[in-house]
Amino acid sequence: MFFADPAAARRRCSRTPRPGPAQDSPFTDPRQLAGLLSGAGWQDITIDAVREPAWMGSDVADVMRYVRGLRLVRNLAAGLGNETLTGQALADLAEQYAARQRADGIWVQAAAWLVTARCP
Tens digit of pLDDT for each residue in 3-55? Predict the structure, then answer.
């Protein structure tokens, strides 16, 4: 997964792993998200999981240039507080992307909630 790979690389290289998303986050549980929307007055709420392949770049160097610029990756690297651990996490991440290399580039599995609702 696009955002899961950097976080997993950080956890594997950190001596103090960070927890994943909060279990009470409405973005991890569609029932909570529906409740939030319903409480705000939305009706006819449907939430469907969408999983699709997403092209990340032409090769590992291309993808790593992109992901190093993401705030998520910069924050994860800063949280390690150690250049060696940061290098290990980035190398681990590069390996994850290399494993997904195809002739037409690097592809990852993207996931999202498709939310539809009607405002009365």
Answer: 555 555 545 555 554 445 555 566 788 999 999 999 999 999 999 999 999 99
> Is there a contact between 83 and 9 (Cβ–Cβ < 8 Å)?
no
pTM for this predicted structure: 0.65
For the chain, helix (H) and strand (E) counts, in that order, are: 5, 3
In which element (H, E) is residue 56 found?
strand 43-57
Closest CA to 34 of 48, 22, 15: 48
- Do residues 113 and 49 make contact, with C-beta atoms less than 8 angstroms apart? yes
* 6, 61, 78, 102 from 17: Cα distances, Å: 13, 27, 14, 31
For the beta carbon of residue 23, count every other beta carbon within 10 angstroms: 9
